[in-house]
Design brief:
By secondary structure, the protein is an alpha/beta fold. The chain has 10 helices and 22 strands. Helix 5 runs parallel beside helix 6. The structure holds 2-acetamido-2-deoxy-6-O-sulfo-beta-D-galactopyranose and calcium ion (CA).
Length: 514
């Protein structure tokens, strides 16, 4: 056989193989994790919200598994997301705390991650939306490729806001490059001091269409005062009101481009984190002002994603996990009427739970979690204890990935797919560097001094003599039974200290790496 014939033959053979693969759905389902930002347990109609209607997210809950005892590891974003990505408790990494927008990447590129696991298993991986895990190695030059970035910890594609929507840089970063940057107008970022001659919320209050309440009085972009200083990069600056459309478009493109391969997609919704800037289409959707309207916008994003999966014929081959990075907050630093209107309509963003974002009380970390997989996962409500950190080991089990090393992530795959109701036995939660401990229905809050509330008005859970609560009888954590059940308090404290070990320093009450 001559050379040409051989290659023709090979070509035919390849063609046959390709068409086989094309007609057969991959055996590994696509996985999408949608993580809202500061969405509380009670912020969805399916969880009892009175003033917001969230039919698209409700559908995931009603037609999938709705977990009523699901947790983020932490009451703020960075540590919570760190746990999801790495399968490790965030208090084991001293950098896993609320990051400024110019913070270096806190996940070491040599560290094992959920997206790396997916990549190694033949998945195409994407991260779109809110990041908040740092970028670069410090002293970032935003005018060049930022290294390391999300792509160095396992994502083939990334299109992200570096930190939060209230922090500079107010630009999208795609695969390590600022989107739409004009090299003649380079961008500079500082969290230390302003750039000479640049306006701030304090020097130029007339620039603001939204007023700050606490913090948030530095650079003003799009009429919104931010945390941090930014100079230049005008052509690249996002318009907050269009962010939902931008990211939803990116998500659809990613799905379409990868519809013939197994994919893993992390979609970090920016709602309802401050500043709450729903697109005009959603303004007035609720009685709650921008915060409620932003939740309706988030629901729209989810609806668009699901409709797109259906359009591409992927619904039955895609697991959708929906959750939130931490509990809710009303006044998180802008005067947007969230607290006043919630009060007026007796709206409870954390449902029955005490506290909210920043809190060691349940409202800080007890969040919505739903798993939807059309025709594969039956509709169910589960009250088993589960945490976002468990996603890594559970997905590993699903795709038969042999995990090596030790993880805080537990394999709860049967629970995640509704096959049993066996959750975790215990969980350490974290807020502002302090830890609490849940064991079945009991919650131990070790003694902590410190203020009762921060500027948001949320209760932090600092109890100078500590606390013990039984959630099965007292979901609202109103009755501290630590003296009545002193033995339980002591035995839980012992187990807690065994688990957190060297990371807890009772003297400074801080998590400490020794
Ligand atoms: C706080 C900000 C708050 C929010 C939070 C991070 C002030 C006064 N408050 O420091 O507005 O940005 O950080 O939220 O600046 S998180 O959900 O990303 O963790
Ligand atoms: Ca958050």
């Amino acid at each position: 056989m001559n050379k040409i014939n051989k290659s023709v033959q090979l070509g035919i053979l390849t063609g046959v193989l390709v068409s086989c693969a094309g007609s057969d759905k991959p055996s590994t389902p696509n996985i999408i994790v949608i993580l809202a930002d500061d969405l509380g347990y009670g912020d969805l109609s399916v969880q009892g919200a009175t003033e917001v209607n969230t039919p698209n997210i409700d559908k995931l809950a009603n037609q999938g598994i709705r977990f009523t005892n699901a947790y983020a590891t932490s009451a703020t974003s960075t540590p919570s997301r760190y746990a999801l990505m790495t399968g490790m408790y965030p208090w084991k990494n001293r950098d896993a705390k609320i990051l400024p927008g110019d913070a270096p990447l806190i996940i070491n590129p040599s560290q094992f991650t959920l997206p790396k696991m997916m990549q190694e298993s033949g998945y195409v991986t994407g991260a779109i939306g809110k990041w908040h895990l740092g970028m670069g190695a410090g002293n970032v030059n935003w005018n060049d490729t930022i290294k390391p970035n999300a792509n160095d910890i396992g994502f083939d594609y990334s299109n992200l806001i570096a930190a939060t929507n209230d922090r500079v840089p107010t630009v999208f970063v795609e695969n390590g490059l600022v989107v739409g940057l004009d090299i003649n107008d380079p961008i500079f970022i500082s969290y230390e001091k302003n750039f000479e001659g640049e306006p701030t919320a304090l020097t130029n209050p007339e620039m603001m269409k939204i007023q700050w309440d606490h913090g948030h009085n530095q650079s003003v972009h799009n009429g919104i005062p931010r945390i941090g200083y930014q100079k230049g990069g005008k052509s690249a600056m996002w318009k907050d009101e269009d962010m939902a459309d931008y990211f939803t478009g990116q998500v659809k493109d990613f799905i379409t481009q990868n519809k013939n391969k197994p994919f893993f997609l992390y979609f970090g919704l920016h709602q309802p984190h401050v500043p709450r800037t729903p697109n005009q289409r959603f303004v007035g959707a609720t009685n709650l002002g921008p915060r409620g309207d932003a939740i309706v916008e988030a629901d729209w994003c989810v609806g668009e994603l699901m409709a797109h999966l259906e359009k591409e014929g992927l619904l039955e081959n895609t697991i959708v996990i929906f959750s939130s990075d931490n509990g809710p907050v009303l006044n998180d630093g802008y005067k947007d009427q969230a607290a006043e209107l919630a009060n007026k309509y007796d709206y409870k963003p954390a449902g029955n739970l005490r506290g909210g974002k920043y809190s060691l009380f349940d409202g800080g970390t007890h969040i919505p979690l739903f798993v939807y997989w059309k025709h594969k996962v039956q509709s169910k409500v589960s009250d088993a204890l589960i945490c976002q950190v468990d996603v890594l080991a559970s997905i590993a089990s699903l795709i038969n990935y042999p995990l090596k090393g030790e993880f805080d992530s537990q394999n709860l795959l049967p629970l995640l797919l509704g096959k049993n109701d066996e959750g975790r036995k215990n969980l350490v939660i974290e807020a502002n560097g302090k830890m609490a401990y849940r064991e079945q229905d009991w919650v131990l809050i070790p003694p902590y001094s410190g203020p009762e509330r921060n500027l948001t008005g949320n209760e932090l859970g600092n109890l100078p003599s500590g606390g013990l609560f039984n959630l099965s009888k007292d979901q609202e954590q109103l009755i501290n039974i630590k003296d009545v059940y002193a033995d339980k308090f002591n035995s839980m404290q012992k187990t807690f200290l065994e688990i957190v070990g060297e990371f807890y320093n009772p003297e400074t009450e801080e998590i400490e790496l020794k």
